[in-house]
Amino acid sequence: MSTADPVSPSNSGATPLDLPSITTAPKALLHDHLDGGLRPQTVLELADRCGYDGLPESDGAALAQWFRNAADSGSLERYLETFAHTVAVMQTPEGLNRVAQECAEDLADDGVVYAEVRFAPEQHLERGLTLDQVVEHVLEGFRAGESAARVRGKRIRVGCLLTAMRHAARSREIAELAVRFRDRGVVGFDIAGAEAGFPPSRHLDAFEYMRASNAHFTIHAGEAFGLPSIQEAVAFCGTDRLGHGVRIVDDITVGSDGDASLGLLAAYIRDTRMPLELCPSSNVQTGAVDSLEKHPFDLLARLRFRVTVNTDNRLMSDTTMSREMHKLVGAFGYGWTDLERFTINAMKSAFIPFDERLELIDDVVKPGYAVLLG
């Protein structure tokens, strides 16, 4: 298949493709970490209230820059170390509730109309909360954030993904927690953490439990470790989506004539329409790709993989959904029709019922982009 064809028939539109305009566009987000999206000032205030004295900076702007610099190391392991500070201030009902509420409000202000935000409940037990209590406080925060956004004329729906840490041994317990709360705002399950040495197949009992419960799950795979991680997530674990999945490009060969040849794994993922939760800025920071311009997002989009645009960790990457889309526009020349397609890809892949996905696509996403296209 040739990769030379444009992604969309036209990049024209009545509205200029600048950052303010993209902010007004309806967007859907599938891969965002709650503990990676705190406001720097909130980190400072919660640290003061809970007595955490390990922060490297005492000023909001300086702290924001520290997170960005620390995450720019090019190492996934070093990138993950930054979470020690955010998780430390999310150990109380107040901290969990506030962070979740502000997350929903910030996403709504950025034009996100649907978001699935994930976090690992097992990391928030240091001050005596139970797993159930942790989830309850986060869900209360999301609902409060949705309500606060609605008062300002913003529409957003936030679903929660419960994450198990792949280096720990609580994945079955977290999977059961996700199923227990699935009628209260939890829409799925995930595993995350350093991939090397911790393959997804170590958590087969959790994935088998999710499938037996007719519940959805995604797996962080193909971010830092490559094709074996993706193969296990797909073939052994039966994942519904791939968290990142960027290294699927290693199974694609592009010839000098521009024609692409897909390996068996890449072809399977494309042909089954398995969603890729791609996070451009984060993938550069963690060393999964060398630069935004070399990100395989465009190749995968042209080959008609189901690509989606995501933030991963808004604090560490100093980003928003609008900024991620704007960067892709600058790197690959996308137009409004492309951004609409990526958004519809995400809505089609959401872990909510089909009729609810369709309603958001037909009543919110398409009308929103129709206005922008003119």
Architecture blueprint of SSEs:
Layout: H1 19-24, E1 27-33, H2 40-50, H3 60-71, H4 76-81, H5 83-88, H6 93-109, E2 112-119, H7 131-151, E3 157-165, H8 171-180, E4 186-192, H9 204-212, E5 217-221, H10 227-236, E6 241-244, E7 252-254, E8 260-262, H11 264-271, E9 276-278, H12 280-285, H13 297-302, E10 307-309, H14 314-317, H15 321-332, H16 336-348, H17 354-373
Helix pairs in contact: 2-3, 6-7, 8-9, 16-17
Active site: 223 (proton donor)
EC number: 3.5.4.4
Binding site for substrate: 33, 35, 193
Structure description:
Helices cover 47% and strands 14% of the residues. It has 374 residues and is α/β, with parallel strands linked by helices. It has one domain: Metal-dependent hydrolases (TIM Barrel, Alpha-Beta Barrel), CATH 3.20.20. The chain has an eight-stranded parallel beta sheet, with helices on both faces. Strands 7-8 form a two-stranded antiparallel ribbon. The model has no long low-confidence stretch (mean pLDDT 94).
Features:
single chain; 374 residues; alpha/beta; TIM Barrel; eight-stranded parallel beta sheet; two-stranded antiparallel ribbon; globular; Adenosine deaminase; nucleotide metabolism; zinc; hydrolase
Kindly identify the CATH topology: TIM Barrel
- The low-pLDDT segments are none
Structural class: alpha/beta
The number of strands is 10
Mean pLDDT equals: 94
Percent helix among the residues? 40-55%
The CATH architecture designation is: Alpha-Beta Barrel
